[in-house]
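Question: Send over one sample?
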Amino acid sequence: MNEDKIDGTVKEFTGKAQSAAGDLLGDTKTSGEGRLKEAAGQAQEYYGQAADQIRGLSEELTDRIHETPLLAVLGAMGLGYVIGRLSSR
């Protein structure tokens, strides 16, 4: 679990608590700030999840390149050819 997911969960929890306290006390400013903090926490948590998935895909791609380097080189050459053809127009 990465730091963004942990920090996001903590922000989300504190935002919910702040929002609930604001609702209980009738303080709309505190309640609104809590809701914003909760949303920011959720966004940071989702960012952490996406980063973990990308890291996993990167590790998987690296493993496959090490297993079949010739196929990786041929794929890179093909991709370079296609990009070259598209950019020359």
Summary: The mean pLDDT is 90.
